[in-house]
Amino acid sequence: MPEGDTVFHTGHTLRQALTGRVLARGELRHPRLATVDLAGRTVSGIRTYGKHLFVRFDDEVSLHNHLRLDGSWHVHPLGTRWRVPAHQVRVILANAQYEALGVRLHDMELLRTDQEDRRVAHLGPDLLDPEWSEDHARRAVEALAARPDREIGLALLDQTVMAGVGNVYKAEVCFLLRVSPWAPVSATDPEKAVKLSRDLLSRNALRYDRNTTGISDRGRRLWVYDQVRRGCLRCGGRVRVADQGTGLEVRKTWFCPRCQPSA
Questions:
Q1: 189-199 core/surface letters (b: 16 or more CB in 10 A; e: else)
Q2: Is 3 a known active-site residue?
Q3: What pLDDT digit, counting tens, does each position of 11-22 carry?
Q4: How far apart are CA 235 and CA 80, in angstroms?
Q5: Among the options 116, 184, 251, 257, which is catalytic?
Q6: pTM of the shown model
Q7: Could you confirm whether 251 is annotated as catalytic?
Q8: Catalytic entry in 51, 56, 198, 221
Q9: What CATH class has 4-120?
Q10: CATH 1.10.8.50: does it fit domain 134-255?
Q11: 125 in catalytic set
Q12: One fold for 4-120 and 134-255
């Protein structure tokens, strides 16, 4: 599931393969963009913000996309056989050495590079911003604490509070805070929650295997997320899973009732 660390890592991979190189092929398989040919343009940079990704070109135009729940980018040496069905490929960016495939991408659009901030202005601070500062942290803490009665699990997923936390980190942060995901924000320390969220994402920003426990053994890299069969790695008790949220916002939530008592 793409979260802030996945998008950051994707940006890093795209940056290494595309930045500074001229596109020999640049196709956008989207109804509104199908007539656009990006061939001949040079990729000038890659920017990520939370779950948003921007591919920048030398003519001050950027390709904006969002991975949502199922989007991804695949980068491989030019000529490599595709490992995904062709009908799922939405973007093809290829230079003399590498080919990048955007698969099941969402919210695709071309916009001026100086307009990128308009697409992310509604979001909270990016937890993986390379220029993260005390001001970023303060803004995130204030936004989290602004609704003290809100369930902490839902608040952590709110990208307008801070950008980057998804369902995996929601569960893991709540576990490490030793609070139920359904506990109110007022039952937690917002400053600690923000710091922990940033620390976990930063630790995994360039990893292929997400890890919040520090244990390298397969199946023991996450504390509670998807650990119903194995059980809690701290107390050995049963990990439970339940829905949290309503309507389109409902998400599965993993938790240990023993380590995370209800408020």
A1: ebeebbebbbe
A2: yes
A3: 999 999 999 999
A4: 46
A5: 251
A6: 0.93
A7: yes
A8: 51
A9: alpha beta
A10: yes
A11: no
A12: no
